[in-house]
Prior knowledge:
single chain; Non-ribosomal Peptide Synthetase Peptidyl Carrier Protein, Chain A; Rossmann fold; globular
Amino acid sequence: MVNRESTAVPSTGLGRDGIELQLSDVWRRLLNRTDIGIHDDFFSLGGHSLLAIRLTVEVRRLFQVDLSAADLLSAATVAELAEIVRRGTADRQGQLVRIQAGSGGSPVYALPPVSGTVLLYPPIARAMGRDQPFWAVQSVGLLPGEEPLGSIEEISEAFIEQLRGVHPEGAEWNLIGYSMGGLLAYETARRLRERGERVGLVGLLDTRITVEPSGDPDFALRALLWRGLKLDLDIDWLRGLDPATRAAELVRRAVAAGTMPADFDADRLRRMIDMYQFNLDALAAYRIKPYDGTVTVFRVTDRSLEGGTLPDDLGWGDVAARAVVCDVPGDHFTMVEPGQVEVLGRRLREQVDLLSAVTPLT
């Protein structure tokens, strides 16, 4: 595993945080359109009074926020409406983000990479097909008042508790995770299986079974800066700023670049940077245990970043009863980007459908 994570904001304008992602999904369904951008006007896209009523119902159901007609007229874009929703949900957002509602079948649950965010998952969900229900869960500690959890075991238990609130009774659990998120998917599947639950896909997206700690003291800052905020700034210059000034400067520049919502603040940015280190520490301390089911390793065909020869299954055959390898194009980073993610999504859907047909009750 290389010592970087992809946290790229989707280039299609799907959203810059969980609230924008979920609002975009609601708009797509209500307006029956696929080309929703976060700065598009609801009414210009075909919205009308009846759809506006349905929109307020959906917002109340997802976020427990009551919108008025004036709210919709003054905040007619996803980005503007998200600001209202954030103010109303500051103490109760939770970790769950519904990426797409789908039309039935067992959901796919995506667990976060080291960044703790879920912004890389919408293109994967779209590539799996719009009928596929798809949820993602972000790390505890990103929201105000939250304290990060200290171990993979604690994180996994917290995810299970969150996901039970939306998981259909009797359905199998389909869990995926990109890079380090795959270890979270594995541990969550292992715990569910121990409790006699049905587990379908355990999809490990270019995930190794061990984590190599980074020797770079600026790893978290570099990862957020280049992969998340898409800012080309001098690290030495940033390091010379005091923490408060550094955070304020990054917020200002990211908002101007359109990679961060306008109502983000420096405190939230500091939590995002800290989350990298919390998750890295938890993963480095994790001691993997055997799993008596099948894992599916989605293995990149471009392995030039690996710096050595690794087994095709990245070692998962040593801990899982069975490890299936599915080749996908790209390298560790480009596998989730346009041009490659479409194949990844199709392969994921194939495996979900296959395992859904054969997963026995345990």
